[in-house]
Amino acid sequence: MKVVIEFYRTRIADDAHAVIGREIVDAVDLDAAIEIARVLARTLNMPQWPDAVAIADADGATIYSSIVAAQADIDKGPTS
Question: Domain count of the chain?
Fold first, then answer.
């Protein structure tokens, strides 16, 4: 299945969301899409660390969203 993975930052004051990364990928199922998103959160070159991720299906319906802990292991910033 083709999914859109969006990474974004959230401003706590007003819950505004800014998309900082977007990838379209093919995944076998939702679990595979979530795993791809976890890898991309640590390796995708983005201007800032993402706070959260959302996965949407080909029709644009959100099928998964979560807080991202991409910065937990790495203190130097995004790679590649």
Answer: 1
